[in-house]
Amino acid sequence: MISVIGVAIGTMALVIVLSAFNGLNELIGAHFGSFDPDLKILPTKGKTFIPDSTFEKIRKMENVVFFSEILEENALLKYGNRQRPAIIKGVDEEFTLMTGIDTMMVEGQFVLNSGKHQFAVLGYGVALDLGVGLTFTDYIKFYVPKRNAKLGHNPMDAFSTEYLYPSGYFTIQQDFDSQYVLVPLDFARKLFDYTNELSAIELSIRNQDEVEDIKEEIQTLLGDDFQVKNRFELHDVLFKMMQSEKMAVFFILAFILVIASFNVIGSLTMLILDKKKDIATLRSMGAEEKTIQKIFLLEGWLISLSGAAIGVVFGLIICFLQMKFGLVSISSNGAFIMDSYPVDVHFTDIFIIFTTVVTIGYAASRYPVRYITKRFLQFN
């Protein structure tokens, strides 16, 4: 029973920790998905490109729901006496429909064009740094170096300057909130002195299961001059880091299970010592060496199977209780995007955990069964 409990605790820990990693992965992916598209087309060389007829074919593809044109550049923002750099993202009307960002406003409204007037929608972090207030009548100044400017007596002549009033703030994820300001696409072109250039095209795909197939199809159409990235490839460093951390934790806990399996070795060793007379009786009745070894090997395997099954069941129960009731909280002051640790159970992980535990248990049973029984059989 002690051996079973040891294996069960290790198995339960694997189920809970890997499910917590899955939950964090899904949470970050969902928040990135609020701002990032399913697919993003970027130029291989340079920062901008002029779309040709090939992009019209992409726009008309059956599985492409939204086709949003993007112009993205850095600029210096000034509001009152405060200033800071930010990423200016010029977007069209389809961007709002594609991302649903209008549902993530914390103050004000998501309005970029309102008849005769244009507005800017700021990330909450940018608005906080600049001290932007929606009840004031002051506007935001945008400063961008002119592309063909020459150095003169007045340094300000080398900058293009435009103005917009803020209409609201959005909050998605800290990386976005502290960097981005959304503006109308034609305003961005005017600010950065472009005519028809774009820096990217963002796509929303109807069937998520076909994203990779559509990505390959679009990449074939565009050739080597463009690269098509999915949502995870846009943040590949972050997701690869999380995957590496998950694998590292898995191997650490698996190693702890190996140590816990020494209980199985000890249990079987004591069992063989205790059943020495029974081994002799079985031999006298005609039992072969392999038959006796199979009996004790089955005993060791039952310990691992029982521990793995109990650990998986209790691990799943704790995970589902966490998902339902949020037993383990992160913070009580609302400083985080969630009040409790996110958990997401992947049954592929459960299968891998169960297989790993049973394999470790089998390997742990082989030593005492093979060597100790052989030793005693030689004396009888």
Strand order of the main beta sheet, please? Answer: 2-3-9-6-8-7
pLDDT < 50 stretches:
none
The average pLDDT value, as a whole number, equals 88
Number of strands: 11
Assess the beta-strand content as a share of residues.
15-25%
Helical content (DSSP H or I, runs of 4+): 40-55%
Question: What does this entry show, briefly?
Answer:
This protein is an alpha+beta fold and 380 residues long.
Q: How would you summarize the topology of this molecule?
A:
Blueprint: H1 2-33, E1 39-43, H2 53-59, E2 64-79, E3 82-91, H3 93-99, E4 105-108, E5 113-114, E6 117-123, H4 124-130, E7 140-145, E8 159-170, H5 174-177, E9 180-184, H6 185-192, E10 200-205, H7 211-222, E11 226-230, H8 236-260, H9 262-274, H10 276-284, H11 289-325, H12 347-379
Parallel strand pairs: 3-9, 6-8
Antiparallel strand pairs: 1-10, 1-11, 2-3, 2-7, 2-10, 4-8, 5-6, 6-9, 7-8
Structure description:
The chain is of the alpha+beta class and 380 residues long. The protein has twelve helices and eleven strands. A six-stranded mixed β-barrel has the order 2-3-9-6-8-7. It has helices at 2-33, 53-59, 93-99, 124-130, 174-177, 185-192, 211-222, 236-260, 262-274, 276-284, 289-325, 347-379; strands spanning 39-43, 64-79, 82-91, 105-108, 113-114, 117-123, 140-145, 159-170, 180-184, 200-205, 226-230.
